[in-house]
Design a protein that fits this description.
The chain has 19 helices and 22 strands. By secondary structure, the protein is α/β, with parallel strands linked by helices. It has three domains: 1-110, 2-keto-3-deoxy-galactonokinase, substrate binding domain (Nucleotidyltransferase, domain 5, 2-Layer Sandwich), CATH 3.30.420; 112-282, Nucleotidyltransferase, domain 5; 292-492, Aldolase class I (TIM Barrel), CATH 3.20.20.70. The strands form four sheets. Strands 18-17-16-15-14-22-21-20-19 form a nine-stranded parallel β-sheet. Strands 3-2-1-4-7-6 form a six-stranded mixed β-sheet, covered by helices on one side.
Length: 499
């Protein structure tokens, strides 16, 4: 006890955990209590604290710090949230002091708030201290599984830039204890084969969760999943839906898991399945079409195409390996062309609209069957509505400031425009500062002579306009151009972290 230097409290809704640290930063002792905020009588905060670790306090000599719901509105004292992006230093400067009766001072850590990548307000209290425990380095996506799972992004300077919360753990508890699904379940051992089956369903149908949840009941009633396998089937379904729906909005890259080892192992299992292609591979809408195209390579920009010609053009493009097709909204009757392409090729290619400038156009594109919205500018309303409707968003950016603003608004990819002015060196430089794996496409002034240089610089793909298609082009000429473009792209070869 003579070397005691700090008391750290993790005080949440259900539990209170206390750790005593020595001057070397090592944990000397850990104590816990079920006296979380929900079971605390008459706001007896100080007496509860003293009952657990009063002999650690030594008359106020040992400093205390607490995080979690103890700083919430119903806690000891309400501590305002910090706005993201935020660092541990920002939190240290915003600690709120509470003086105990013997003069000891408790410092309460503020939580965080942000607008999530899907455009919703979100908050956290407690989990942020785990994130700040990571070593600064490459930008990272961190997942903290639990009752309320958190997905957080950190930049290379250790700032929490955004996060999102899923009620997966709470849903699982409610459904296994208080729903009709629980009547068929037997909790007798672990059935990871059933977990995997549920995870595959959750990944593929993440945007229909309220519907596919009923499959837990039918799987039990019809005997397809045994009673002892139903809890794991449900667990896999919920985690699969969480992973699929979250990664539909988040820039891709590595994922760090922080939390209890058994639960993290389940998330890792689902993430591996997701990466292997069992789910929509971060493609909002792949579960609908069944195809699941990958968002990389060449984008065919069919400016000026007419509905009468669009299917023949689409046939040639797919024949030559081009799997992303854009019809700009300033083309003749663009929504008709998008609808025709989506019906014919929606399972083989990603069909989208370009030059989308307002929210109403986003709605029309979605109704026509488009799955990708490309814009020449950064309009947060357009990005947000695209995500709400389940479409992927690729706004046009010309500066890193615009690029970061687009990602903060929820964009799936960045369109560097005009690419011929910015040049391949811009992509190479941006790769050093943007989150790892951020999809970046060069658009504007790109053809077979320079597209390879963009790929070598780190471009995820490029958009091809008049160098590929012009209205009235002969089929033979279009086929030849598409073949040359695809060959030049393939010849540039893969570059790590860019596909």
């Amino acid at each position: 006890m003579e070397s005691a230097a700090l008391i750290s409290l993790d005080w949440g809704s259900s539990n209170l955990r206390a750790r005593l640290f020595d001057r070397e930063g090592k944990v000397v002792e850990i104590r816990s209590s079920a006296q979380g905020l929900l079971s605390l009588p008459d706001r007896s905060f100080e007496s509860t604290l003293r009952a657990l670790c009063g002999n650690w306090l030594r008359g106020g000599e040992v400093p205390l710090i607490a995080n979690g719901m103890i700083g919430a509105r119903e806690g000891w004292v309400e501590v305002p949230y910090l706005n993201c992006p935020a660092t541990a230093l920002d939190a240290a400067n915003a600690l709120v002091r509470v003086t105990l009766t013997d003069g000891a001072v408790l410092h309460i850590v503020p939580g965080l708030r942000c607008t999530s990548p899907s455009g919703q307000d979100d908050v956290m209290r407690g989990e942020e201290t785990q994130l700040w425990g990571l070593e600064p380095g490459d930008p990272a996506c961190c997942v903290l599984p639990g009752t309320h799972s958190k997905w957080a992004r950190l930049d290379g300077w250790g700032r929490v830039t955004s996060f999102e919360t899923s009620l997966t753990g709470e849903l699982y508890a409610m459904l296994t204890q208080h729903s009709m699904l629980s009547k068929l379940m037997r909790f007798d051992g672990e059935r990871m084969d059933c977990f995997d089956e549920g995870a595959a369903l959750g990944l593929a149908q993440y945007d229909r969760l309220s519907l596919v949840l009923f499959s837990v009941r039918t799987a039990g009633l019809l005997g397809r999943v045994p009673p002892e396998g139903l809890p794991d089937f449900l667990s896999g379904l919920l985690i699969g839906a969480e992973v699929g729906s979250t990664l539909a909005y988040w820039p891709q890259g590595g994922v760090k898991l922080l939390g209890e080892s058994d639960l993290c192992a389940r998330y890792e299992r689902v993430l591996r399945r997701h990466r292997a292609g069992a789910g929509p591979m971060a493609h909002r809408g792949a579960g609908r079409s069944g195809g699941g195209t990958r968002m990389n390579g060449l984008i065919a920009i069919l400016r000026g195409v007419r509905p009468d010609d669009v299917l023949a053009v689409g046939e040639i493009l797919l024949e030559q390996g081009i799997r992303i097709i854009e019809v700009p909204m300033n083309s003749p009757r663009p929504l008709e062309s998008i609808a025709l392409l989506a019906r014919r090729f929606g399972q083989q290619a990603e069909i989208g609209a370009g030059t989308v400038l307002d929210v109403d156009d986003v709605i029309r594109v979605q109704e026509a069957g488009g799955r990708l919205v490309l814009s020449p500018n950064v309009n947060p309303d357009v990005i947000h509505r695209s995500k709400v409707l389940g479409l992927r968003s690729m706004p046009g950016v010309a500066t890193p400031t615009e690029g970061f603003a687009a990602l903060a608004a929820g964009a799936d990819a960045l369109k560097l425009f005009p690419a011929d002015t910015l040049g391949p060196s811009a992509i190479k430089a941006w790769r050093a500062v943007f989150p790892a794996g951020t999809p970046m496409f060069g658009v504007g002034g790109i053809g077979p002579d320079n597209l390879g240089r963009f790929r070598e610089a780190g471009a995820t793909g490029v958009g091809l306009g008049s160098s590929l298609y012009v209205p009235g082009i002969f089929a033979s000429e279009l086929r030849q151009r598409a073949r040359a473009m695809q060959a030049a792209w393939d010849a540039a070869g893969f570059r790590p972290g860019t596909d």
